[in-house]
Design a protein that fits this description.
This protein is an alpha/beta fold. The protein has 3 domains: 118 residues, 3-Layer(aba) Sandwich (D-Maltodextrin-Binding Protein, domain 2), CATH 3.40.190; 84 residues, D-Maltodextrin-Binding Protein, domain 2; 78 residues, Porphobilinogen deaminase, C-terminal domain (Double Stranded RNA Binding Domain), CATH 3.30.160. It has 10 helices and 13 strands. A 5-stranded mixed beta sheet has the order 2-1-3-10-4, sandwiched between helices. Strands 7-6-8-5-9 form a 5-stranded mixed beta sheet, with helices on both faces. It has a 3-stranded antiparallel beta sheet with strand order 11-12-13. Helix 8 packs parallel to helix 9.
Length: 316
């Protein structure tokens, strides 16, 4: 453990995160868990990232990796000891630094994508939206699946923190609905009516990944106290599928693993064209300890069914 890090020894564990309101809430939640589990002293350190500073399309910066590089650098240079990431924002086609390790996956929250409507509109469901309604989201995975369900909708690119997106929605001038992650709403304490959509979530949805330097073995062991074995098994399958597909940051890839009632680990994966008109789908199961093999098998099945051609047609 770093000389100035906690764990009950009087030092401080520096926990880095993005500076967005949601990221700070998530980091404070992880810090509280560490204090409770190990009597650790934890300071949350906000780190401004290129992805947060940039107001345009994330593809202009190379995708979701724009949220990672400054935080990785802070870990590698010793500015912070631990970092917290939304796992769904960790790219699948960019290798992680060998010096870093996800020592804990916090127990998964709700993976649902929720459609919200202007507070004054009276609309309560996707089916209530009129033809040509404007729906805001930045996720290609959501856009593709929404277009499969309602090809008449106008899907608008929408970024920003949850509060700013809600403000734009309630202004009633630009958008008739937006789609957000229910986990984010819950973590922010936002209780707002909406419709959970019947679409497949992103790989890593609802999971917070806690990162640290691999060589800091005491910190690794400390973070293991937060690791949720079932979530790790599911994540290992989902991430192995993502790696096997070699999808870039703009690929409409969806995947969700879960432990079934019979104790087996199941994984469902889908890849879409940008407009959702074509897709490939695969689903398999395995013993729960074989998650990486399961993910590789589902990826191979998707590739046999043409996933490579679908992904290749989507611009970076």
């Amino acid at each position: 453990m770093p000389a100035d890090a906690g764990g009950g020894g009087g030092g401080v564990l520096r926990l880095g995160t993005r500076t967005s309101p949601l990221a700070m809430v998530q980091a404070r939640g992880v810090a509280a868990r560490l204090r409770e589990a190990a009597n650790a002293t934890v300071d949350v350190v906000g780190i401004s990232t290129a992805g947060d500073r940039h107001r345009g399309h994330l593809g202009e910066l190379g995708g979701k990796g724009a949220f990672m590089s400054e935080i990785d650098r802070a870990l590698l240079t010793g500015r912070v000891d631990v970092a917290v990431h939304c796992l769904k924002d960790v790219p699948g086609d960019v290798p992680r630094p060998d010096e870093l390790v996800f020592a804990a996956y916090v127990e998964r929250d709700d993976v649902a994508d929720v459609m919200l409507f202007p507070a004054s509109s009276g609309i309560q469901s996707l089916a209530d939206l009129p033809p040509g309604a404007r729906v805001g989201t930045s996720a290609v995975r959501r856009r593709a699946q929404l277009r499969r369900i309602r090809p008449d909708l106008r899907i608008e690119y929408l970024r920003g923190n949850v509060d700013s997106r809600l403000e734009r929605l309630d202004a009633g001038e630009e958008l008739d609905a937006i789609v957000v992650a229910r986990a984010g709403l819950t973590r922010l304490g936002i209780d707002r009516p909406g419709e959970a959509l019947d679409i497949l979530p992103a790989v890593g949805s609802g999971v917070l990944a806690v990162d640290c330097r691999r060589a800091d073995t005491e910190v690794v062991e400390l973070l293991r106290l937060l690791d949720h074995p079932e979530t790790r098994r599911c994540v290992s399958a989902e991430r192995a599928m993502l790696h096997g597909l070699h999808g870039h940051c703009n690929s409409p890839i969806a995947g969700h693993a879960r432990i079934e009632r019979d104790g087996r680990l199941s994984l469902r994966g889908m890849v879409f064209t940008e407009d959702g008109s074509l897709f490939v789908h695969a689903q398999e199961s395995s013993p729960p300890e074989k998650g990486e093999g399961l993910g590789a098998s589902v990826a191979a099945d998707l590739l046999r069914k043409g996933a490579r051609d679908v992904i290749a047609d989507i611009p970076h």
